[in-house]
Amino acid sequence: MRIHQEVDRPHPFPAKDLQVGNGSAPASLAKHWTVLDGVRGLAILLVMSYHFTMGMSGQSLYSRLLFKLTTVGWCGVNLFFVLSGFLITGILYDTRSASHRFRNFYMRRALRIFPLYYGTLLVLFGLLPWMNRWTDGFKGIEHAWPWLWTYSTNLLILLQGKWFPLSHFWSLAVEEHFYLVWPLVVFTLDRKSSVRVCLALIAIAFVVRIGLVRQGLVLSAYTLTLSRMDGLALGALLALVIRGERGLDAIVPLARKGATLSGTALILLALWRVGLRFHDSMVQTLGYLLLDLFFASLIVLLVATTQVTPLTRFFNLGFLRSLGRYSYGIYVYNSIFILVSDGLSLPARVAAWTDSVAIERVVYVALATGSTLSMAWLSWHLLEKHFLKLKVYFESRPIVSVK
Description:
Order of helices and strands: HHHHHHHHHHHHHHHHH
Mean pLDDT: 88
Number of strands: 0
Domain Acyltransferase: 36-379
Transmembrane segments: 33-53, 65-93, 113-132, 194-213, 219-242, 254-274, 286-309, 330-350, 362-383
Protein name: Putative acyltransferase
Low-confidence stretches: 9-25
Largest sheet: none
Number of helices: 17
Oligomer: single chain
Helix content: 55-70%
Strand content: under 5%
InterPro entries: Acyl_transf_3_dom, Acyltransferase_3
GO molecular function: acyltransferase activity, transferring groups other than amino-acyl groups
């Protein structure tokens, strides 16, 4: 029996810092790669461009091309996953011999993620009775609360086969599941065994997606933890490989070839399928993996580059790095703005006020972007950064070695 799931829009996610460093770490690994803040910024920019232009189209060739480009913004979630796997695995591996390593890792993750996540849920839960009087954007969220509190949003998507308010938290669920399990792998296995686990997870995720797509479960192929583990595992694989005998420089030639081949394959796939829609069967099976390979290759090339190049200059732009800093809040709040504005029929009201579809779209995107960035900025300065200061009580002394 084929169970078809409703397809409307995907929703994405955030990763955080790598700060490896004491005197024993190799110079190439014992630093915070600021260029990766720009990578995170690009990822959230892709997500915002997708969400805020969803359903829009244009009459002119320029506008049609612009909206066509923004439809691939969902791939920002793939970039987030690969980046997160890379950074988190590096942190775990470099502290694998530290005392209290499990406690320190879980507490530092909790301080980064839980305040904003549960703070947002608490505020919405408290305001919902009042909000429901003037907007229906959160209609149907009542049955989702148990799943939201327990990081199980993607399981509810599997059961219902459709999106619901705050279902964009599915990627946070995937990330949290990774945080819970992955320390057990890296802390208990040696590097080579962990590499084998990464390769197995990449293969398993690919096979699981094929099975889900064949059953018509396209949303689950996009959101289930096991079906999306290849991006995280590929990032983890990179972190483990560069800590091997041959180091980072040895895989740079492979990364160059990987970026070229996967990039070319993605272009050909987009031409064949007339775009890269997240729910397209070939994109879900082959395309996701190609995207992960391309992003993994990009990360290698960026962290291995010691000279200033156009690529590193782009990812070191202050604008992108600032977006990277606030990416978690931006991700959480951008879809909430959409829920509120759609519930208030804001796009239609703006269109009636301006009497111009083009102006309406510009105003809507400007309002969405400004509101989301403002909320993320306030969230960072009033809430998040104060909890991050508590990380000092859960520091591990990283020891980077070659094994």
